[in-house]
Amino acid sequence: MDKIPPKFNNKLFRPVFEVAKICNFTDSELQDYEANMKYLNDYNNTIEYAKKEGLEKGVAFGRRQISKLFALWESGMPLAEAKRKFGLEN
Length: 90
What we know:
mainly alpha
């Protein structure tokens, strides 16, 4: 079969035809496919790791800034002035 019959070209059956197509790959095509899938998985994992690291660093930075803000406020600086100092004015 070169094409999926129209009545089977839907969300339920399309994956079955994709698996059948992969099963008919030559050794060379299968190696290329597996290499591409590995690359795609590595790429996606790298992006997810970067997002997680960025979020953790951003949260840590925000907590440090808030601690500094409250330290200024507790030392007697008006809260509005302390917020301006950190660029948090509304």
